[in-house]
Amino acid sequence: MIPRRKHNASSGSLPPPDDKHASNDYILSDGGARDGWRAALRRRFNRKTLHKRIPITSWLPQYNAEKAIGDVIAGITVGLTVIPQSLAYSNIAGLPPQYGLYGSFFGCFIYILLGGCRAVPAGPTAIASLLTWQVAGGVIEKAILLNFLTGLVELLMGVLGLGFLINFVSGPVSSGFTSAVALMIATSQVKDMFAISVTGTTFLQQWISIFRNIHNASLWDPVLGFVCIALLLSMRKIGMIKLGEKSAEGPSTRQKVLTKCMWLLGTCRNAIVVVVTGVLGFWFVATHGTSPVRLMADNAPDGAIPSGVPIPQLPPFGYVRADNSTADFLDMVSELGSGLLVIPLIVLLEDIAICKAFSDGRTIDATQEMIALGVANVGNSFMQAYPGGGSLARSVVSNGSGVKTTFSGLYTGVMVILALQFFTQYFEFIPKAALAAVIISAILFMVEYDVIKPMWRAKKLDLIPGVGTFVLCLTLPIELGILTGVVVNIIFILYHAARPKFSVEMLKTEQGVEYLMITPDRCLMFPSVDYVRRLVTKCATSSSVPVVIECTHIYSADYTAAKSIEQLTADFHARQQPLYFYNVKPSVCSIFEAVAKPEHFVVFYEDDELDRLLAADERLAPRKQPPPLQA
Amino acid sequence: MIPRRKHNASSGSLPPPDDKHASNDYILSDGGARDGWRAALRRRFNRKTLHKRIPITSWLPQYNAEKAIGDVIAGITVGLTVIPQSLAYSNIAGLPPQYGLYGSFFGCFIYILLGGCRAVPAGPTAIASLLTWQVAGGVIEKAILLNFLTGLVELLMGVLGLGFLINFVSGPVSSGFTSAVALMIATSQVKDMFAISVTGTTFLQQWISIFRNIHNASLWDPVLGFVCIALLLSMRKIGMIKLGEKSAEGPSTRQKVLTKCMWLLGTCRNAIVVVVTGVLGFWFVATHGTSPVRLMADNAPDGAIPSGVPIPQLPPFGYVRADNSTADFLDMVSELGSGLLVIPLIVLLEDIAICKAFSDGRTIDATQEMIALGVANVGNSFMQAYPGGGSLARSVVSNGSGVKTTFSGLYTGVMVILALQFFTQYFEFIPKAALAAVIISAILFMVEYDVIKPMWRAKKLDLIPGVGTFVLCLTLPIELGILTGVVVNIIFILYHAARPKFSVEMLKTEQGVEYLMITPDRCLMFPSVDYVRRLVTKCATSSSVPVVIECTHIYSADYTAAKSIEQLTADFHARQQPLYFYNVKPSVCSIFEAVAKPEHFVVFYEDDELDRLLAADERLAPRKQPPPLQA
């Protein structure tokens, strides 16, 4: 009477004759961790694992001239983006400008060997810079140690397979967090745009401070800043124009060249603005001895940015505080506190999101990304850099420039080294307002207001963690904000686990015996079992017909569920009402059978079994009906 | 080709002709909270709600002589258990003996009106006493205020419908907690058994202290204690004997009377031991002026237990500390701390577990239990009692004595009042070791070692939260122990949500086109979506046949899942591999459609649709096979 779902004999029962992957019905269990240590060891040490763990071994043998050209172009273009970006981000992190550059070359070289995603040049990122500022408070030693420990935590997470933790940050929470961070970063740049001093750590405090101090603003800093923003946004727009696309015969060669030039203008806009305003600053200082706008030299401790590549050295395991007391390693760790977990998680979250966006349909090996980023961060910490990772802005440029492999990182790194070696004395003349403009005009596109509409259409409830995380990140300390968002979202899942849905049907067997069929739609785990028992009892006591619980969708159960099923069967037994279980999965059945009394727990799998069970049940004898005439 | 699961026309399609509850196919959604305020208000104020919220209104009209007799017998028998128990439990709570009795009458009267479970006489419990000692530290004012606030929190939880929180304490965690508490309570009585002083708060610390001080033990206290335990256990055993049950004609009248007498002996064993040893203590004091064993009088501040029913008064909102400083209400609340949440939750947990055990198959209204216990606790706090609730020991006696309604609480309460009024001066002569024996011989049966075997057989993984909670409750502060157990168990659910299982089948349409059918077994929520995308991509890229994702079991999805499905469809589109979704539930489909591009997201519901889709797909043209010969 109840047909079991099965596949048509003409397809399912015949094994496919010519398929190499033939496997008629197998279950992919997670991890497959049950096939013993020996197999696990063998799996860990073979060629496939080598390709997986040191990805360069898989792509280097196929490296050719065409790929090399793509990588050279992409590497140099990214270099032109990375240099101004790094100078600006170190400002967000509250560190002297050269520290951004220190984190932009060695990590790239490591990533060539270990990285799995060609479009991710490792380096300073806006979010990591903001978090570094919040955690290390602009103390260079703490920022470097933080980078070292961040790398170790990432590595550890990769080795221990803790990557699944990132899955608990849902899309809405991630969007809310990114948007809030973007607004906070933009806010942090306002002080440089107006040349005022701003106090406070949260978004609100900073804006209050800005409105209080805005009357102290200089004239030329904001003028230069807004002109730069206007220029940057226009160049960005120009870079997106594609000439002749709409004409029937496609773009002509001239149009193609012009499009390419405009794309280059758009891509190098940051470098152009920084170079032009830097020349302007140099000219003012050379001719007037001073500049009407504040320059980068103000950020450097002695007014000069030291030149040269840093000498590799161990990260500092102690430092001298402002009050001349010394902090040892443990003091530093306790001062860094929860940042040691938050920064690795956030960096990985951002990095893996970018990898996914540029995966071209291949799967992303999150574990490998963690290992690569971990080693890159540890390596960078030896170059006195602060934490970084993959940044969306660089990846977009890299991908747009036709990157082929992670080898492009070599050219980016070499450009940064050249900049450090030969150009640092010129960086001092870059106006601070121009760098602020670079950050603001890039970061505003990270505010993901465009996800609200699809979220509203898809699932309105998801707006709660999304908007909640956004608001909380702006008002609370940022790590508390995202943590609350994650917890709220986990509560959704728990509520979901606690409140299964049921379909209830009054049916008749072919013998004409009525019965109630109750179908729960998901697994039975401890938060839901009482609810299930209560609902089944409610449905069952409203009539006295036999009850069948359809267990097709119950793919899993636990001890608490089994206890509840035992109580349920005992209740039905006490009420003299028959209760049967239909189509219980073997794994679930063995759990129930371990606890319930066998004479109360009756399972059937075929429809005609129900007829026989009902016919045999003497409890039904007084009200059993004769078979209907038409049967 | 793939038959959709549906019910046979001879049963499902015909509405049952004579069934009042006829409802051919309805879904019970949780709460049904969507039908407007007006309906909700109407639901709140009608006769059914009155019966639900003031249960006495439903059973009092049907009250008759037979029920009254059952209630009288049960009420008096419970009274004989409650009085010695209350004296002993107040010792666990670190309070003078009369405070246990103060909590054993007014709450019973309130529970008559509001209580939903006839076998639950509210009063002091072992677990609540231990927690009260841990939270209030033996300060009377704090214990009473704790009771008041516990009642308010319970009431609030009832009104706000927070009862579902209790569902997150699974069977294993609850068993581990109860067992650990039983051992801790037994440990707390060792000092009275041996008349030694014991320091330390955790289980381990206390046993270390016991072994250090055991050489100070007096001779007669442990002798009396162990004799009492032996007597109590024997009487318990005797009370369980049923004479003549095995003979063919059933027990004779004489055997029945004898069985009843033995049952009475077993039930009143605590009262018997307390009365006999009390008379012994009185005799010693009367004849020798002192007693070889320590008596209850030592517990009372001035050597005498005050007699009389307490005068109702507001709970104390301030008290004078041992160092003569005064603590006001807020000081007290902050000193009680997390106990204000832990105690209500634990009391409710215990109470509702007992209600379920004696429900006789009816559903338990957890909300009503919360309200009843909340009001009872608030009421008790006006009688200067400390927190209590339902206790398993009393419920077993009550049920065994043939209780019919909650009205039996009246007789229990009256007996306690009589004891307070006329017998308190005699309580002073009860030996402390005898009361310790009463507690130990009862509490040891709360160690649930017998759940380990079924748990092992049902689901070995559930032993982790169970044993973990047990060990942690013994080693950590008790509320941290149970919290860790709950969190570990929640992690199981989250892992479960993050790692769905798949079945993968290579099938052929009737046209002979091969396709891969992937069936995930549960909902798509954010923790699992990346895993799903990775697995589907892995399966799909290993061959290039079209892929069908069977969504029958996907009963729910969220925005993050929709984003992932969009990426998945875009990936397949980029790879030129067809991807179809089969049998997507409408609610899930609308979520996916809100995000995915419609030309990539193809859904079908009927088998022949797949044939048409595959035939129309030009991407398959080069490798489409001719229909096999036998078709």
The major β-sheet of chain A equals:
5 strands, mixed
Strand residues, percent of chain A: 5-15%
Helix content of chain A: 55-70%
- Main structural class of chain A: mainly alpha
Radius of gyration of chain A: 32 Å
Largest interface: A-B, 107 and 109 residues
Shape of chain A: elongated
Oligomer: homodimer
Mean pLDDT of chain A: 81
- The overall number of domains of chain A is 2
Number of helices of chain A: 27
Q: What distance lies between the first and last C-alpha atoms of chain A, to the nearest angstrom?
A: 13 Å
Task: Enumerate the spans of chain A where pLDDT stays under 50 for 5 or more consecutive residues.
Answer: 1-34, 623-631
Largest beta sheet of chain A: what is the strand line-up? 4-5-6-7-8
Keywords (chains A, B): Membrane, Transmembrane, Transmembrane helix
Membrane topology (chains A, B): Multi-pass membrane protein
Protein name (chains A, B): Sodium-independent sulfate anion transporter isoform X1
Organism (chains A, B): Vanessa tameamea
Description:
Two copies of one chain form a homodimer. The first copy, chain A, is mainly α and 631 residues long. Chain A has two domains: 349 residues, no CATH class; 124 residues, STAS domain (Transcription Regulator spoIIAA, 2-Layer Sandwich), CATH 3.30.750. Helices cover 58% and strands 5% of the residues of chain A. The first copy, chain A, is built from 27 helices and eight strands. In chain A, helix 6 runs antiparallel to helix 18 and helix 9 runs antiparallel to helix 20. The first copy, chain A, is elongated, with a radius of gyration of 32 Å. The relative contact order of chain A is 0.14. At the A-B interface, strand 1, helix 21, helix 23, strand 4 and helix 24 of A face strand 1, helix 21, helix 23, strand 4 and helix 24 of B. Strand 1 of chain A pairs antiparallel with strand 4 of chain B.
